[in-house]
## 1
Amino acid sequence: MGGTAEDLELIYRRAKENGCDFIIHAGDFCHGPTLCEDYLKLYNDLDIPTYHCLGNHDTDSTPYEKTLEMYRMEDGHYFFDDGGFRFIICDPNYYYLDGIYHHYDMGNYYAHGQLRDWMPPEQIEWLRGTIASSPGPCVLISHESFERPDGVKNRRLVLDVINEANRKKPHSVLMCINGHYHRDFIRILDDVIYFEINSASYDWVEKKHDRYPEDLCEKYRLLSNTVVYNDPIHAIVTLEGTTVTIDGMESSMFMGINREHTANKIYDAAGRDVVPKVSSAKITIG
């Protein structure tokens, strides 16, 4: 999502003009909803239905249970049906320590590095049943990726559930959408569309840079750890049968600064670079 009311207004206006049935984000709406109650209220109370998908940062400064309450979610994973499709929101925001799956809560995952990004077994079984009981094709939405090799740790089990469902009934799962990596990427794998949607606003860089004006960096504490997009990029996704149309958009980099202007690697662990856009595509499966 974008980080200002103006960003949200732009996204809302485009959704309204295109007759969208609902708006959903793929995680990291904020660093804890208690820090942005007015912004959250704008999103929650739009006259188009809005949904949340938890990201790793959504509970950084707000307890998990409180975040669910403010996001109007009964659980971190849930589903809803709309237009003959089932939209399944998954929650891989767990770390696995000493045989226990711990949900991200108040930044507890920061201390656990490689132990992060798991889907507990009971949620995987819930996913299996939720797909099987769906009246139509399913779209899975998660923050972390089921497609990337550096994605959800037990993603192979999730892929097995998806592929098993599609073997039993073709197109049971049509598409998976994820956020988290701030990259623009589309892949078709085993007749499923995997759509990695970009951040609405920026990419995080581990090594600080000094390419932005000092006064701006003083005003925005973490700015020197980012490269920023000029517009809140997003996409409109249309589903018709087994055809998925993605209407993306393109922006530009703030002050022209990209990763290549910093001391950071240009490509991420999956070999994907930063581009200020969400690609458009029209794909028919089968």
## 2
Amino acid sequence: MHLVDANILIDAKNRYYAFDIDPGFWTWLEKAHRSGLLISIDAVRDELVAVQDELADWARTHRDFFLPVDQWTAQNLAPLSAWAARQNYSTAAQRAFADDQADFLLVAHAAGHGDTVVTHEQPSPDSRKRVKIPDACEAMGVEYIDIFSVLRRTGAALHLRGEGDAPSVPTPTAQTIPGLD
């Protein structure tokens, strides 16, 4: 399962997969979710609905995309906190990581469920000012990946079509995943 960070959805909405430019991306998200490939957590949803925009509306209408904290997530909270405390992060960085429910819970959830975190963040192991998701993932034995790699892994191909037109770029080697075609 791929566990989606808020920055994936926010960047998609604000930049390359805006709702009015590429509704196919959002359809792909929904189909990938229904196929058991993508999920996120309530803390990410809370972050998204705090702003009044199209993405907040999407998060409200796709409630099942977001999972609550469960026992498998909870059992990773203390080890994750302990790891952060042993690093060279400033006290403020440790506090911010623990207070940022989405990032902290995302890594704990992934560790508890064996999920892969999907994020745009890059590792920064020498950072003292901010705990990055990839660094926390590595510490907890969790894989992380970017959205473009997930699109490729799942064989997604987003095509621009006119009314009744065939795909503008043929993809004879594209693979399809059951439930995503």
## 3
Amino acid sequence: MKRVYVNESWCLGCHLCEYYCAFAATRERDMSRALKDRCIFPGIRIEQQGPISFAVSCRHCSEPLCVKSCISGAMTRQNGVISIDREKCVGCYTCILICPYGAIYPSEKGAVQKCELCLERETGIPACVSGCPNGAIVFEERDPE
């Protein structure tokens, strides 16, 4: 299964992936209109430790603790992708607490959010990948390590 991977040595820390992710979620045509004067809630986040910048996003684990711990059944794993049913989510944040990668975040809409690989995009490529100016974020299949 294809997943989002980040090459930390190429990451500029520009945060454009966050904006492209938030923009993709709006389903609008114009990024400046969609995001102007708004606090964004992307499914990917840039973290920095010293001179190193890196993106944190859902790894779509093969044995996801978030899905196992979800008390409402809002989190599911189908075809390797972990998704959230926002209608079922009760906002207990157990998934946020249990995710070992810190890849699940509170949402502006009361539920939680995370990377869902932009499955609804026509291109089939996550917005963060296509928007990364340095090619630090890729969407590819790799052999398990």
## 4
Amino acid sequence: MLSLNTADSADCSPLDPQMLKHIEKIMGPEMTIMLIQQFMDYAPQQLAALQQSIAIGDTETLRQQTHQFKGESLQIGANQLSALCQKMETLAQKGQLEAASANCAKLETEWARVKAALTQVSRHE
């Protein structure tokens, strides 16, 4: 059984423990660990792609990328990360690249929290 330290309230935690329990119930522990590892491999690549889209000023690609990252984050239970993606998606739709760049720094900070929590979960299989 996977374990998530829920000492923080669900609002402060980088991961929704109920979502992880739901995933484990449906997929089983081994497949859940595999899903976690896939997300941990995917997220840094996605963050780099977001930064590149901002750097070249491609708001439509940025919007599409953040929309996808938002969904992937929700699926793993990274609700705050998903909310930041939603904000960036909106900024991209409005063409606000400077604000999107500032939001990207927040995404990276939140990703570090999510990564630490996912690492803890995957070690307690």
